């Protein structure tokens, strides 16, 4: 939380509330998440600056001011709220404008809030190394096929590689593979052209459908909407398609959830996924 559909909705919901609003104060509640690259106190530098635009680049939200930026990378557990009375213990940064109050909370402190000058976005790790934006016009079938063409990665690892695709998180990587009927450990170079094409179409549909669902749900900003997912975090539940028990595998350090019948493994596997339970095997 949040992943691409969440971030797309956050940008859409925060923009009309914050655009044009001048900053009154910035309160650093927990400096562990802050990366101050401006050489001065943010509260002094940003005061009275109006927000000009809010852009998303992969997993980053870029709040753009004249000659200044605030970039937030929420990673696994970052959350946003416009509640002016937000005082939960996970609050990290509070940005008070002449209108709304933007709160950034993060109970694991894994996310980052960057204060930096215009033109210095390259100082943020991975910001300029993002691959094809999955919501952009550049994400075409031809571009996808060219990106995956020579990869020997396991397909789930490929989908999670932000330097190639920007950006699928854990939940939607699992959902895209389920929709495409592909086992998460399948090597990219063993996929047929038809399977690659179907995967591309599945990614587009899963992301689009999820954005539509989350928008219609209209939950509070800091609530993670995941009741629409079919396999993610549903270990031991029945597959919604065939009823087989959903399994969990470890793919290069990441948990992946899948149906062993709908997503059969290609070739011999160390773990016979169709007959044996496993939740800790690393491969």
Question: What fold name stands as the CATH topology of the largest domain?
Answer: Helicase, Ruva Protein, domain 3
Main β-sheet, in a few words? 5 strands, mixed
> Domains counted in the coordinates: how many?
2
CATH top level label of the largest domain: Mainly Alpha
Mean pLDDT: 94
Distance between the termini: 25 Å
Stretches where pLDDT is under 50 for at least 5 consecutive residues are 275-283
Walk across the major sheet and give the strand order.
2-9-5-4-3
Helix amount, in percent? Answer: 10-25%
Q: How large, in whole angstroms, is the Cα Rg?
A: 20 Å
Named CATH architecture of the largest domain: Orthogonal Bundle
Class by alpha and beta content: alpha+beta
- Tally of helical segments: 6
The 3D shape can be described as: elongated
What is the total tally of β strands? 13
- The fraction of residues assigned to DSSP E strands is 15-25%
**Which sequence of SSEs, written as H and E, runs from N to C?**
HEEHEEEEEEEEHHEHHEE
Instruction: Describe the oligomeric state of these chains in a short phrase.
Output: single chain
């Amino acid at each position: 939380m949040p992943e691409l559909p969440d971030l797309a909705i956050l940008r859409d919901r925060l923009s009309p509330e914050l655009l044009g609003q001048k900053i009154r104060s910035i309160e650093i509640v927990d400096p562990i998440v802050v990366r101050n690259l401006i050489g001065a106190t943010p509260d002094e530098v940003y005061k009275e600056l109006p927000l000009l635009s809010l852009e998303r680049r992969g997993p980053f939200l870029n709040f753009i001011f004249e000659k200044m930026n605030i970039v937030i990378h929420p990673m696994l557990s970052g959350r946003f709220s416009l509640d002016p009375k937000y005082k939960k213990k996970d609050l990290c940064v509070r940005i008070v404008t002449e209108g709304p109050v933007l709160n950034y909370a993060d109970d694991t402190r894994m996310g980052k809030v960057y204060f930096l000058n215009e033109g210095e976005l390259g100082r943020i790790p991975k910001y300029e190394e993002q691959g094809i934006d999955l919501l952009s016009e550049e994400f075409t079938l031809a571009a996808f096929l060219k990106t995956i063409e020579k990869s020997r990665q396991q397909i789930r690892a490929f989908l999670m590689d932000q330097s190639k695709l920007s950006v699928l998180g854990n939940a939607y990587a699992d959902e895209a593979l389920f929709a495409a009927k592909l086992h998460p450990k399948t090597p990219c170079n063993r996929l047929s052209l038809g399977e690659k094409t179907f995967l591309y179409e599945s990614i587009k549909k899963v992301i689009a459908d999820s954005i539509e669902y989350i928008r219609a749900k209209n939950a509070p900003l800091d609530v993670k909407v995941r009741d629409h997912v079919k396999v993610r975090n549903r270990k031991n539940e029945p597959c919604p398609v065939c009823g087989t028990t959903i399994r969990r595998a470890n793919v290069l350090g990441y948990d992946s959830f899948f149906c062993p019948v709908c997503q059969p493994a290609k070739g011999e596997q160390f773990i016979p996924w169709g007959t044996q339970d496993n939740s800790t095997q690393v491969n």
